[in-house]
Amino acid sequence: MTSVIHDIGYRHYDGKRLGRAYAVRSLFTHNLRAAYGLGRPVKAKIMPFLLCAIMLMPAAISVAVTAIAAQVGAGRDVQLIRYSAYAVYLQPLIAIFLAAQAPVIASRDLRFHVTPLYFSRPLSRLDYVLAKYGAFTTALFILLATPVTILYIGALVTKQKHIGTHTVHWLAAVAGCLLFALVLAGLGLVVAAFTPRRGFGVTAVMAVYLLSTTAVAAVQGIAENQTQFTVAQWAGMFAPFNLVDGVQVWALRAKQSAPEPPPSGIGGPVFTLLCAALIVGCVAILYLRFRKAGAK
Amino acid sequence: MSIIATRGLSMRFPGVLALDQLTIDIEPGVVGLVGANGAGKSTLIKILLGLLEPTSGQAQVLGFDTARDTMRIRELVGYMPEHDCLPPDVSATEFIVHVARISGLPPTAARERAADTLRHVGLYEERYRPIGGYSTGMRQRVKLAQALVHDPKLVFLDEPTNGLDPAGRDEMLALVRRIGGQFGISVLVTSHLLGELERVADHLVIIDGGRLLRSQAVSAFTQVSGVLAVEVEEEMDRLGEHLARTGLQVRPDGRLLLIDIADESTYDVVRDSVADLGLALVRMENRRHRIEEVFS
Questions:
Q1: Sign of the torsion formed by the C-alpha atoms of B106, B109, B115 and B118
Q2: How deeply is A135 buried, as exposed, middle or buried, from its count of CB atoms within 10 A (0-12, 13-18, 19+)?
């Protein structure tokens, strides 16, 4: 055998090339990981994981308290946090996660002009937007549905009565979590996509949440004072959490958790339609935004 | 077969005509696209990638129509944009693996190709550190790596030497030459510096104000000029006077004497004169045109 030192040199790639669906999946995974700071320095992981941990705490405590109560024979007086109410109760935390992480998904590629590298590959702009939207929705869904599921597991473990009803409520709440995730991800990404500068995105997303929620609360307060209850109920659709809770109440038969339920009659359908319009509208706006950015 | 062919390509932006009826045919190899800033180089590349839609005219890349077969073209080409386009908080390895997957490479192949490609462009241990801490030269290498990682048939390199110091320029140009030679990948490389491309390109396309000025092989630009350059160790002036007396057109140029070649006998006259005067001949060569002279 002769001994030759091999300079491998340039090797061409003649292996498999997977198509567009694989590219979209890869982009989805990359963004889902990015939403939790994975594949990035430790600094990027702190915020999402800290918020996740805090999100889980009320659920864990609720389960623990219920278990202890059952042991001391006070099980009937203590109940688990309602599944469908969890997101509404913890909305400030969710809003912080949204504000902190939406810019990671929607602003960074714009701020650092990375988009041409994507759009010069076999990936359409709609693919790109849907992968990002899907990834961030999934990230939020994990944040919301995990504690709700812990509550349900707690219900099973502590052998709550009417476990069938628990199962139905839990499933409805998981559907509600998905709807929360879709609406919030859409709003967060749209705001962040228009504020690519560092720090601006976080502030802008937080501002949109706080302003809408506060303004709606003010209108609802005034309307109630004037006994204009229907006005107060309609006003709810302009605050994201109240809007989605309205859909939970109407379409998923949940008990109301937001300040106001949707108005009776056409209220529920209108809230649901508005949710759907928001989701489609956000995708459309993101598409237009990135179409413009990619051509630069 | 042409790798790039355009027919009457025009691109009008509000207030400016970036490309004006551009018709070119480009053969495989290293092709330099030269023009002043704003001549339409980047616009042309973006049209070829399907990132911009031309106002009128057609273009083909590797035999595919840019309007109809955009995705097919993007699978086969790589693109290195002119400006910075890298996210700062991921490592070069992480980023190159990611874009390889977006180009359709399966996970294992993406990792292998990323490692190979980064080595080929000259990034070693630093590839595990976040890109934010890289020098301009290292960033340019990462940008080049992302254009090559999927083993394209053709790469568009938009001003790859931008912002580099002289040593960095030389290294980048040597890399461009290797891509066209050893790697066997056709290259369309732009620069506003003619002298740079003269060193690496086989063919030059020169555009100005969106119009084609000239398209021909580099050898055609630098063909024999009919001038003989002679260098002697000392007493250049004596040789000059001697030659002038024989009726030749002689002019000094630094350490060289430039002599217009009248016919074949000119060489003999010069040789004999040097011998008669007992001078030491350093060199005697046919002068070639430099590309710059073509435009002066």
A1: negative
A2: buried
Residues facing residue B229 across a β-bridge: B258, B285
In this structure, are residues B1 and B26 in contact, taking their beta carbons and an 8 Å threshold? no
Strand partners for B31 = B188, B203
Closest CA to B171 of B118, B122, B117, B218: B122
Q: Residue A187 corresponds to which tokens in the numbers above?
A: 């709003």
What CATH number is given to the structural domain containing B246? Answer: 3.30.70.980
Considering the domain architecture, whether residues B18 and B128 belong to the same structural domain is answered as yes
Spatial neighbors of B77 by CB under 8 A, at least 6 apart, are A120, B48, B49, B61, B62, B152, B153, B154, B155, B156
How far is the C-alpha of B180 from the C-alpha of B3, rounded, in Å?
Answer: 13
Domain count, chain B: 2
Q: Do B81 and A113 touch (CB under 8 A)?
A: yes
- B167 lies in the same domain as B291: no
* Residue A86: both structure tokens together: 């969890």
Facing residue for B85 by CB, picked from A10, A11, A114: A114
List pLDDT tens digits, range A22-38. Answer: 999 999 999 999 999 99
- Strands (E) across A197-265 are located at none
- Report the distance separating Cα A241 and Cα A263, nearest Å: 16
Q: Point out the domain boundary residue: B193, B220, B247.
A: B220
The amino acid at residue A52 is C
Dihedral sign (CA A11, A12, A17, A23): positive
ipTM > 0.90?
no
pLDDT in tens, B228-282: 888 888 888 888 888 888 888 888 888 888 888 878 888 888 889 889 888 888 8
Residue among A26, A124, A295 whose CB faces B102 most closely: A26
Task: Scan for tokens 């241990």, then name that residue.
Answer: B125
Helix or strand holding residue A67 (H, E): helix A42-71
What count of other Cβ atoms lies within 10 Å of the Cβ of residue B124? 8
Q: Which of the residues in chain B have pLDDT under 50? A: 296
* Inter-residue contact B161 to B169 (CB < 8 Å): yes
The answer to whether B140 and B160 are in contact (CB under 8 A) is: yes
At residue B35's C-alpha, the angle toward residues B55 and B67, to 5°, is: 30
Asked if A41's CB is within 8 angstroms of B89's CB, the reply is: yes
Helix (H) or strand (E) holding B195, with range, is helix B194-200
List, in sequence order, every beta strand (DSSP E) within chain B.
4-13, 16-26, 30-34, 56-61, 64-65, 77-80, 154-157, 186-191, 203-208, 211-217, 224-232, 250-253, 256-260, 281-288
Coil vs helix vs strand at B286: strand
Is A105 an 8 Å CB contact of chain B?
A: no
> Can you give the residue range of the structural domain that contains B195?
4-220
Contacts of B263 (CB under 8 A, 6+ apart): none
Asked if B176 and B241 sit in the same domain, the reply is: no
From the list A14, A173, A120, A223, the residue with the least C-alpha distance to B52 is A120
User: Which residues contact residue B15 at a Cβ distance below 8 angstroms, ignoring those fewer than 6 apart?
Assistant: none
| A118 lies within 8 A of chain B by CB | yes
Interface of B with A in 52-71 (CB under 8 A): 52, 71
